[in-house]
Amino acid sequence: MNKSTIWTVLGVIAAVVIAWWLVNILFSVMFWIFKLAVVAVVAVVVFFVLRALVSSRRD
């Protein structure tokens, strides 16, 4: 095994570790964006339901 092969193997290992870390962060961010979108949609629905309830009691 020469020095070039060792550096290649270490480079591949480092690339896999860095890619694993970046994909983990990417999925975490995507999860939080999806969760935020769902919360926003539910909040809008609840807002309109509460508004309809309050306005129907006024009439």
Q: Cα-atom Rg, whole angstroms?
A: 25 Å
The amount of helix comes to over 70%
Class per helix and strand makeup:
mainly alpha
Tally the helices.
1
Cα(first) to Cα(last) distance is 86 Å
Global geometry: rod-shaped
Instruction: Report on the biggest sheet.
Output: none
Uncertain spans, ≥5 residues at pLDDT below 50?
Answer: none
Number of strands: 0
Percent of residues in beta strands: under 5%
- Estimate the mean pLDDT confidence: 94
Q: Give the helices and strands as they follow along the chain.
A: H
Task: Offer a quick outline of the entry.
This protein has 59 residues and is an all-alpha fold. 95% of the residues lie in helices and 0% in strands.
